[in-house]
Amino acid sequence: MFKKILIANRGEIAVRVLRACRELGIQTVAVYSEVDRASLHVRLAAEAYPIGPAASRDSYLRIDKLMDVAKKSGCDALHPGYGFLAENPALPRACADSGVTFIGPSAEAMEAMGSKTAGKQLARRAEVPTVPGTSEPIEKPEEAQELARSMDYPIVLKAIAGGGGKGMRVVPNDTAFASAWRDAASEALNAFGDPRVFVEKYLPAPRHIEIQIFADSHGRCVSLGERECSIQRRHQKVVEEAPSTVITPDLRRKMGEAAVRLARAGGYVNAGTVEFLVDADLNFYFLEVNTRLQVEHPVTEQVTGLDLVKLQIAIAAGHRLPFAWESITPRGHAMEVRLYAEDPDNNFFPSPGKILARHAPTGPGIRLDEGVYEGWTVPMDYDPLLSKLIAWGNSREETISRLRRALNEYSITGIRTNVGLFRRILSDQEFLRGEIHTNWLDELLARPRPPAPEPHPGTEEAALIAAAVWHSANANGHVPASTDANVGPSRWKMDGRLRQMDHMP
Amino acid sequence: MFKKILIANRGEIAVRVLRACRELGIQTVAVYSEVDRASLHVRLAAEAYPIGPAASRDSYLRIDKLMDVAKKSGCDALHPGYGFLAENPALPRACADSGVTFIGPSAEAMEAMGSKTAGKQLARRAEVPTVPGTSEPIEKPEEAQELARSMDYPIVLKAIAGGGGKGMRVVPNDTAFASAWRDAASEALNAFGDPRVFVEKYLPAPRHIEIQIFADSHGRCVSLGERECSIQRRHQKVVEEAPSTVITPDLRRKMGEAAVRLARAGGYVNAGTVEFLVDADLNFYFLEVNTRLQVEHPVTEQVTGLDLVKLQIAIAAGHRLPFAWESITPRGHAMEVRLYAEDPDNNFFPSPGKILARHAPTGPGIRLDEGVYEGWTVPMDYDPLLSKLIAWGNSREETISRLRRALNEYSITGIRTNVGLFRRILSDQEFLRGEIHTNWLDELLARPRPPAPEPHPGTEEAALIAAAVWHSANANGHVPASTDANVGPSRWKMDGRLRQMDHMP
Amino acid sequence: MKFEIELSSAEGKKKHIVELAQINGMHSVIIDGRLLDADAIQVSPNTVSVILGGQSFEINLSRSAGGKLKLQCGPHEYSAEVMDPRAWRGRNLGALEVAGRQEILAPMPGKVVRLLVAAGDAVESGQGLLVVEAMKMQNEIRSPKSGKVERLLAKEGQNVNAGEVLAWVD
Amino acid sequence: MKFEIELSSAEGKKKHIVELAQINGMHSVIIDGRLLDADAIQVSPNTVSVILGGQSFEINLSRSAGGKLKLQCGPHEYSAEVMDPRAWRGRNLGALEVAGRQEILAPMPGKVVRLLVAAGDAVESGQGLLVVEAMKMQNEIRSPKSGKVERLLAKEGQNVNAGEVLAWVD
């Protein structure tokens, strides 16, 4: 097994990988940009090295610096997490050159399956159904627009190097084409350093359902079942669950076999996800392969009981998959919500800044994969994902009720988060009935917001009292109690503590 | 189902019950003593009422006040948690008088099984093996000492109303009898308001293994399997796990059947735990019945996937047990450690006080049932249990490695905790081999402490730097960054921030 | 102690007089003359727990850029302006709003990646003015009204802070 | 800035000179004359993160009753006395210890439930002096030395604070 692993990422996924290493008794090395010095993954790591300025292209995307750190600190393996360089074949190549094991597929497998176009070609060869469209990048906008017209709108533009909806635009009609092309290309360039996009027929109201696969280097390849990821905003997943409410055992087997067929055709090793679109008649079409760990992997972990990151590490170390698919018995239902630093009441604008207060939920059925802490300043330079809240229950209903309970306990002060969005989603009748598709959330958000629930009687008075108490405690630069070793209880507890008028119930 | 439940408890268990109510859509009413106004269970509850001074006997043990709150707030049910009045038949009786459903067994069942002596008599009738000794309370110390001599030392004195090792003393020889009797009686009086104790033969080096049972009001009674609770200090459980490393499927069945037999004989309804001592030859002896939810119930929840508190509520509402034992398939291994506010380096003296800083672990396989928060002052008036940290894994090894990982992340500043004790236990070879018994921990603690692991090179320099940085930031009453809405980053980040000498790795 | 507090919510704003008083030794709250059965305590630097007639409320507070108090109580949000006795008179009535002309503020810190209009352009309400990138997302800032771009202060490539004026539309 | 810091651990105590300096614009740390490759930042009110030659340390700090600094770094604990330039001279060398005579201090806040000895009694080392109850546990306070109970300040039923003197044994 490995001695020391370089975690070439930041935020919650760096923390997630770090914890898996700890549990395996493997030492950890973190890297950080200038604005990440105080980040949780740096605090928790055994070793940490700076790799440059805030901008990703100068730090987390700099393979040369990563290799320097790996050598300098004596790492024998590297975990890329997701995003950044996770799907860039240059990274496994550089690792090979430096004698560091890359925890993930080979550069060749990435190229054979990673890019949307290559993946599509492979899918056709492996007889996996695909969505109509081009599979080659198109250089000239005019050319692409011609093709779009010939295919009939709506079409969708996708970045070759894309993922997570970045560099992706749906084009409803011909007039919208030009600006959509511009946005997609520039977003793709910013996010992946590659502006190339291609054109695909746009399926209305499909579901996004993906299969988690695992392949070892000894020829075994298995499916760990599906994740339902249809709740998306601007093509960005925000809620994921397993199992899907529409997948039958038979369909699950078919999709699993298709995914495994594809992986074998690509000579794939380690963890991967095969994304499908599923239409109203439960036909499934290959969408793309993510040649890495997914953000939403905990959903699969909670129902299978497996630790996918530990499995990735074991497979990279040459171990055999310690099980046959038959032995995996999913249990209950799991659901994840992605907590972002963004303002749902204001166009979901990003909301970086200092976290002044934070109360995180715990208790039965609740898992929190987090990358933040109270007092930390969320930088403006990276993806706004703060934490992932995952609930498990015996049924979808229990899982949702636990998620609701946890979200009610979750509060964060100082920055805006999208917690309110989940309150709305988790109480929507269509969602509760499982009647969802990839446009469902955008349509929900386009509808007039339902009137906010009446505040409980007294809420306004309580707010007024709180304002007065807080003002009198903090207005004159008073140091609140719990924040300093040296001062006593807060002024209010000292001389201003309000007491019940009548002490007996 | 119930509309509103009164939670007649405090601390982590009050929070635990409150969360179950939330998930069931049931309103919650909390009660608090004067020193608990700022406690977590009060903050999270929908309603909260004061019930008097700090001393339990003036607040949490006052049935009349609880009934007043129940009436005033319109509760239709009451959950007692554990400890306090949970095993006092007067509470269910008072509830019945006020038309409030008591979530637990009937007063009669409590009396028939609750007290150690009555439980023993019942066990004999139900042909469940018991430990030799008296089953009646003994009033006169002389009388008890006579009996002790006749039974041969060592013997053990136990409080009739006892639980959690309170009012319990092992007596090695005749000379130690008098003081042991005095301590047991006075501790029993303080803890339960009942000084009566009885005498029992003391089995050397037994295991404490208990069976979780559930009975509904429609005649179904099932066993949810065992919990291994042999890791105890002064007869107080500190680590619990399931399954036990020594229980065979056959023995599990036998013990389960015995427990169910006992429950049926006592006409028992709702959740209960039948405690057994298991000797080296795997003979099991009935110890006592706990007619309530156990502190360590999460261990069973993590392996069965069931929510025992929700089950308690459903059964009290007259629902049928929603399963047959056959359908419960335990998965993996679960282990709980009890985090106490006590100082393992100083005779485990209690350590109440203000929690200045707190970093709690999260992530895969980790559950935290907590009753505290940063900034809260732990009162000196109650049990020192702060939180319960529970880990789940596919194997005992994985579970232990997750628990170790979580304990390394767990830090609490301002008060002492027993986290260090668990570091020692979880790295002990005998523990790792599962070679444990109820005296094992006390023997471990009696042995000379193994030399502390060498601090990593640089730890001392790091401490010196931290001291200098913290001093310069806090010495002159400076408000640290993360603690106030109005001030900017901490002084160190402002003008004194230390930077890496060479920026490149 | 007596406070004049203007509380604003989605429903509108209203002034209240909140008095933290002592009545024969007991602390108590009087709001707009009504004596309330209340118990409040600051449980952490930015959180106050209020129990009002047995109902338990938890309010998170922070200071907004504008100096107002932001209050969150579960899903409900308020903003408050507190005037305590010390500051009672001679208080600033808040920044004057430039009537008619709208200031376009940066909603978050980020980088101006593209200008979609030029000073002097006529714009429709909802029309995109410029694109600000933050956290790898491109966010189009739209015009709140139909009118004319009076001034365009932001430049492409410029880093802006939250609340910074990007343009004026009149 | 320069600090004289006395660091105590299980292994003993030692004085160090810690200098937070600037060398051609770069901040740096010098301990006892050695220049270190270090980066430190206060991540929360009671926590400092230190990266020393690539090793990441997290230290939790708090002020002990005695005014000393308590430091926790994972399982390792230190206490420190910091003298900064301002307090350099004329500093208090710490409370004098009463030689020979031992003060018996309450290890935690609680209630004295039973006295096991009387003033004037001869006691063995390890012998119980009194019982303090806190958090429902009875804790026997034992004599640190063999000798005579010179004074017994605690009374049965009395509430005591942590660090309060209960008795003197000489």
Provide a descriptive summary of the structure in words.
The complex is a heterotetramer, with two copies of chain A (505 residues) and two copies of chain C (170 residues). Chain A contains 17 helices and 22 strands. Chain A is α+β, with helices and mostly antiparallel strands and 505 residues long. Chain A has five domains: 4-103, Rossmann fold (3-Layer(aba) Sandwich), CATH 3.40.50.20; 105-129 and 204-330, D-amino Acid Aminotransferase, Chain A, domain 1 (2-Layer Sandwich); 132-201, ATP-grasp fold, A domain (Dna Ligase, domain 1, 2-Layer Sandwich), CATH 3.30.1490.20; 332-419, Alpha-Beta Complex (Glycinamide Ribonucleotide Synthetase, Chain A, domain 4), CATH 3.90.600; 459-502, no CATH class. In chain A, strands 13-12-9-10-11-14-21-19 form an eight-stranded antiparallel β-sheet, sandwiched between helices. Chain A has a five-stranded parallel β-sheet with strand order 3-2-1-4-5, sandwiched between helices. The longest helix of chain A has 17 residues, at 249-265. In chain A, 60% of the residues are buried. Residues 477-505 of chain A have low confidence and may be disordered. By secondary structure, chain C is an all-beta fold. Chain C folds into two domains: 2-83, Glycoprotein, Type 4 Pilin (2-Layer Sandwich), CATH 3.30.700; 97-169, RNA polymerase II/Efflux pump adaptor protein, barrel-sandwich hybrid domain (OB fold (Dihydrolipoamide Acetyltransferase, E2P)), CATH 2.40.50. In chain C, 0% of the residues lie in helices and 60% in strands. Chain C has no helices and 17 strands. Chain C has strands at 2-9, 12-23, 26-31, 34-36, 38-44, 47-52, 55-63, 69-73, 76-83, 102-105, 110-115, 122-123, 128-134, 137-142, 147-152, 159-160, 165-169. In chain C, the strands form three sheets. Chain C has a nine-stranded antiparallel β-sheet, with no helix packed on it. Chain C has a four-stranded antiparallel β-sheet with strand order 10-17-15-12, with no helix packed on it. Chain C is elongated and about 65 Å long. The chains are: A alpha+beta (505), C mainly beta (170). Chains in contact: A-B, A-C, A-D, B-C, B-D. At the B-D interface, helix 8, strand 15, strand 16, helix 16 and helix 17 of B face strand 1, strand 2, strand 3, strand 5 and strand 6 of D.
